[in-house]
């Protein structure tokens, strides 16, 4: 008949964190959070920059169209 396995009792106190694993984990999660926030801010900034450039291009296009229309009217006497 098989003998029951000997029970190993867990130590009463948790082992000391001699390598700083807990602090490293905190630093890792803080770095991840900072990176996520930075990506969100960069995406928001990129959206604003896109619309500013788009509005500027449309404005310049309208100015060129008006100048061309004015020149056409002057040349052909419309």
Describe, in short, the structure shown.
The protein has 78 residues and is mainly α. The protein has one helix at 21-76.
What does this structure look like?
The chain has 78 residues and is mostly helical. 72% of the residues lie in helices and 0% in strands. The protein is built from one helix and no strands. It has one helix at 21-76. The longest helix is centred in the middle third of the chain and has 56 residues, at 21-76. The model has no long low-confidence stretch (mean pLDDT 89).
Present the secondary structure layout.
Layout: H1 21-76
Biggest β-sheet strands, sense, barrel: none
The arrangement of helices and strands along the chain is: H
Q: How would you describe the shape? A: rod-shaped
**What is the β-strand count?**
0
Structural class: mainly alpha
Distance between the termini: 113 Å
Number of helices: 1
Portion of residues within helices: over 70%
- The whole-angstrom Rg is 35 Å
Note the beta-strand portion: under 5%
State the main characteristics.
78 residues, mainly alpha, 72% helix
